[in-house]
Design goal:
Layout: H1 2-74, E1 78-87, E2 90-99, H2 100-103, H3 111-124, H4 128-135, H5 139-151
Antiparallel strand pairs: 1-2
Helix pairs in contact: 4-5
């Protein structure tokens, strides 16, 4: 009888130790999951604040661009011109602001003025073909001048 009681006590103690070990393992596992969730939450907060900053910056950029466009439209030195270019059988139409001084074609212009006009039109975003049409010169001439100016 004493042996059975002792045996049952030993088995009980072993089961208690095993259950404490299992509880401890699950506790560590839950702690790791909690830390991962906390880390993810912090990442989401950082992404949210970054996204908010990007949106605010974008709003400021749009507002500044609209202000510039309004200022350009109020000025007589600029006009809105429609430029059409053909890229592989599709036609693209763009509205751009072009300084009237850039596209004035005086016969007396020296070569440096032509170079400056070509560079200014390139900065606006026109292709070589569009620049050639605006300045009434050859496309190849525009390309050569652009290559020369790039090397300087």
């Amino acid at each position: 009888m004493i042996k059975i009681d002792t045996l049952l006590n030993v088995i009980g103690i072993i089961l208690i130790v095993v259950s404490i070990i299992l509880i401890n393992r699950s506790n560590r596992s839950e702690k790791r999951m909690y830390e991962e969730i906390t880390s993810m939450y912090d990442d989401v907060k950082n992404y949210y604040s970054s996204l908010e900053n990007v949106i605010n910056t974008f709003d400021d950029l749009v507002e500044n661009s609209l202000t510039k466009i309004e200022r350009f439209q109020g000025s007589n030195d600029y006009k809105v011109e429609e430029v059409i270019s053909e890229n592989s059988s599709e036609t693209i139409t763009k509205n751009i602001l072009i300084d009237n001084d850039i596209i004035n074609n005086d016969v007396d212009d020296d070569k440096q003025m032509v170079y400056e006009k070509i560079l200014n039109l390139r900065k606006i975003g026109l292709s070589s073909r569009e620049i050639a049409q605006k300045l009434k010169i050859g496309v190849r001439e525009v390309e050569i001048i652009l290559k020369m100016m790039e090397k300087k």
